[in-house]
Specification:
heterodimer; A: 418 residues; mainly alpha; 2 strands; 63% helix; B: 259 residues; two-stranded antiparallel sheet; 8 helices; 5% strand; globular
């Protein structure tokens, strides 16, 4: 990326680097020219890396003490909580860590939506991101099954049963997933295996995600292309490292509050009751981060169409770079899109809320309207908006004011910060 | 900086939203002042010991506590009985051990390393003895009900005559706070049900509070250590964050741009 060829100073370094250019890679990462106007919404990439590493490290530790067996899983979790040294700490970091991970990923995704980071030439970064997000949901769902509490068991039953909606082969697929005729020990052991595998797949995809990012470089709040390196950029180290570090520490304070003071607030009390196939809980609800999609699933009266709608709601994101016809990236210069963006945010939060409520009466009606709007946003509003919208003139660079129009640098800055 | 406050505001908004969604189904529960709430909350040792007495004299005839061991009664952050006291408590129970060298099972007094002896052999036996209802294991009960200790405290004090128009089946009782208001456990605590050795008056409220405290400890035996560590960890993080903030300001001052 940088203009000069990197040459290690030491003789051994040069010898090694000629054979495996790890030092060149390190140098590239440190020198990587980053737009200097990145705001704090951009720090969540680093935060997410931290979340992934935390989940892997705590997960490995838990796996040393956890027993993946229908008769012993619940007990082994209690063993971790009571008898393993600092087992309570490790488990609470892991269980709250998943919530923190999703919190960060939602901010990361919505940042991308606001600043148009998914647009050319960053489509591949975006699509890899969607795959990571899908894998995260799979990992989180299967992880929630492992303690073998009531919500684990019944959540697994509800979600695996969705596959039975597939015509003709559905029933067969469900039995194949279960490894039997109901959710039982074989289901638990395979979920454990996959739960252990997926984080490493995510890790690999994260490497690709960052690699793909380093080809065009970061988008920025103004959303225009910038020359690299130039006076518009700063080297990643130390400028972005310290800024990401600062944001990460703030994030960790929030994280710590949950781990130490409300470790069970984001979970469901029923999951401290051991799984019982004979007793169904009054309300089966997934974890908060899956609620919007759960609401979409339940808003469609037909089971198969519900499943299709739920999957489409996620997969439609992968088509976003082509559904959004506007060439302007940042919502700062798209006055109409900006309003629709915030409506979408509200729509998703509403979906999450009704997803936690019983699917009846007013809740169901709201869920249906919100589901319809979700798809209308992506399939109708975005494509049309690109042609109809009157955008604000773009500045020539992130440091220079625009030539035309009244929008000076100071107003741009104000806009971005707002 | 303005932006980061917005982010934090959003995070708090989202999480409290998630919390309220979880909490929305609760009815208004009875409240009492728990010593273990708050940033540095600790258990009241006396309350834990009295709570154990209520558990063992009243609840334990039906409710098991299979994940708790007698040694836990001695451990820091718990009721902190002396080793002799705990050994004596354990020895008052009998466990089946074995097989011995002759291949025979035998009965011996419980030791500190044993789990709390269960009142029934298994779930079926418990159900058979209780009109089909299974008295839930109490090891994690305080975490297994939404409302937690407040819920347990409320149910213990929530027995009353059914409102007119409601007839109850035999062996079913009316409880204001129980989900569905029907409970198969008869009122367990009456004034003076147990006799406290420390002179505390054994009122219904006092016993309910003590046993709920004990159940909270049983469900969360490392609560005190967690609060203590959390307090230190968060102070440390705040100080580090401030230091990093000023380092960041210094580094970014090399170029003319706002952070």
């Amino acid at each position: 990326m940088s203009d000069h060829e990197y040459v290690p100073k030491s003789k051994f370094g040069k010898w090694f680097n000629d054979r495996l250019p790890l030092l060149t890679l390190g140098n590239h990462l440190a020198d990587y020219p980053t737009p200097k106007n990145l705001n704090y919404w951009w720090t969540f990439g680093g935060i997410l890396t931290f979340c992934l590493i935390t989940q892997i490290v705590t997960g490995l530790t838990l796996a040393m003490h956890y027993i993946a067996h229908a008769d012993l899983a619940f007990e082994s979790v209690e063993h971790i909580m009571r008898d393993v040294n600092y087992g309570w700490l490790i488990r609470y970091i892991h269980s709250n860590g998943s919530s923190m991970f999703f919190l960060a990923v939602y901010i990361h995704i919505f940042r991308s939506l606001f600043y148009g980071s998914y647009k050319s030439p960053r489509e591949i970064i975006w699509i890899i991101g969607i795959i990571i997000y899908l894998l995260m949901m799979a990992a989180a769902f299967m992880g929630y099954v492992l303690p073998w509490g009531q919500m684990s068991f019944w959540g697994a039953t509800v979600i695996t049963n969705l596959f039975s909606a597939i015509p003709f082969i559905g029933e067969g697929i469900v039995q194949w997933l279960w490894g039997g005729y109901s959710v039982d020990n074989p289901t638990l052991t395979r979920f454990f295996t996959l739960h252990y595998l997926i984080p490493f797949l995510i890790l690999g995809l994260v490497v690709l995600h960052i690699w793909a990012l380093h080809i065009p470089g970061n988008n920025n709040p103004v959303g225009i292309d910038i020359k690299k390196p130039s006076k518009d950029t700063v080297p990643f180290h130390p400028y972005i490292v310290i800024k990401d570090g600062f944001a990460l520490l703030m994030f960790m304070i929030v994280f710590a509050f949950f781990v130490f003071y409300s470790p069970n607030i984001l979970g469901h009390a029923d999951n401290y009751i051991e799984a019982n196939p004979m007793v169904t809980p009054a309300h089966i609800v997934p974890e908060w981060y899956l609620l919007p999609f759960y609401a979409i699933l339940r808003s469609i009266p037909d089971k198969l169409m519900g499943v299709v709608a739920m999957l489409s709601a996620i997969l439609i994101l992968a088509a976003l770079p082509w559904l959004d016809t506007s060439k302007i990236r940042s919502a700062v210069f798209r006055p109409l899109y900006k309003q629709f963006y915030w409506i979408l945010v509200a729509d998703v939060i509403i979906l999450g809320y009704v997803g936690a409520m019983p699917a009846e009466g007013l809740y169901l009606l709201v869920a249906r309207v919100a589901t319809a709007y979700y798809f209308i946003h992506f399939l109708i509003i975005l494509p049309v908006l690109g042609f109809k919208e009157k955008t604000v003139p773009l500045p020539l660079s992130i440091t220079e004011p625009v030539l035309e129009g009244s929008l000076g640098l100071s107003t741009i800055k104000k806009e971005i910060l707002n | 900086m303005k932006n980061i406050f917005k982010i934090i505001y959003l995070i708090i908004l989202l999480l409290t939203g998630a919390y309220q969604v979880n909490a929305s189904e609760k009815t208004q529960l009875l409240k009492t002042d728990w010593s273990f709430k708050g940033l540095l909350g600790t258990f009241d040792r006396g309350s834990l010991q009295r709570g154990y007495q209520v558990y063992t004299e009243v609840c334990a005839s039906c409710h098991s506590m299979k994940y708790v061991s007698y040694r836990n009664l001695v451990e820091e952050g718990g009721p902190e009985f002396s080793i002799e006291q705990a050994k004596a408590i354990a020895a008052s129970f009998e466990v089946t051990d074995g097989p011995n060298d002759d291949g025979e099972m035998f009965v011996r007094p419980a030791k500190l390393s044993d789990k709390f002896v269960m009142p029934y052999e298994n779930v079926k036996a418990a159900q058979a003895a209780n009109g089909g209802a299974y008295p839930p294991d109490m090891s994690v009960l305080a975490k297994a009900r939404s409302g937690g200790v407040d819920y347990i405290y409320s149910v213990l004090l929530g027995y009353e005559d059914p409102p007119s128009g409601i007839t109850l089946d035999d062996g079913v009782y009316y409880n204001k706070y129980m989900y569905g208001n029907n409970i198969k456990m008869s009122q367990p605590l009456y004034d003076g049900s147990v006799e406290y050795s420390d002179g505390t008056e054994a009122t219904e409220e006092q016993m309910a509070k003590d046993v709920a405290t004990f159940l909270m400890w049983a469900a969360e035996p490392h609560l005190e250590a967690r609060h203590k560590m959390g307090f230190r960890a968060i102070i440390y993080l705040i100080i580090l964050t401030i230091l990093v903030y000023f380092s960041m300001k210094k580094i970014w001052s090399r170029i003319e741009s706002e952070v």
